[in-house]
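INSTRUCTION: Work out how this chain folds

Token vocabulary: learned, describes local backbone geometry

RECORD BEGINS BELOW THIS LINE
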Amino acid sequence: MDRRIRRTRDLLHRALIELMLERGYARITVQDIIDRADVGRSTFYAHFRDKDDLLVVSSTEYLRTAVAHAVPATGPPLAPAHTMLHLAADHPELYRALLGPRSPAVLIRATQQMVAETLSAHLTHHLDLPDDEFADTVAFLSWGLLGLIESVTDPAHPTPPDSAYRRLLSLAGPGLS
């Protein structure tokens, strides 16, 4: 990807995340994002359809990069989950904004898509399943992982990310092997 494109997308992603932490996703407009990022409206729409698309695409790119740096393609099937749980523990305020009790359904669904796409990219190297079974497996794992991420970011009783990962392995690991 061209350096200028990457820079613009990073500015827009950063602006969205900052605004989410300040006022919540539902109260953010595309105008708020482009004002914060200092880019033009046409530039925004050259890259993304709407703020939901910005969230899913940019967060998925970020998550894939983080997982790729931390997990070799030949790593264990659920290794990306370990990375995701640690990212959530390192940035609980962001993940609470994505998955907290006041998060709108569209945001929770976008987060699930982001997690599913990241898991899917890794699991294609590990699972030899028909397409429909593969999709069901990824959906099951992604929704379960969202629950664990929420427990890791719980402000009252956070679950340590390594404990959450061990729970995921004990629940889903046998089915994957």
User: Anything to note?
Assistant: The first helix runs from residue 3 to 23. The chain has nine helices and no strands. Residues 51-176 form one domain.
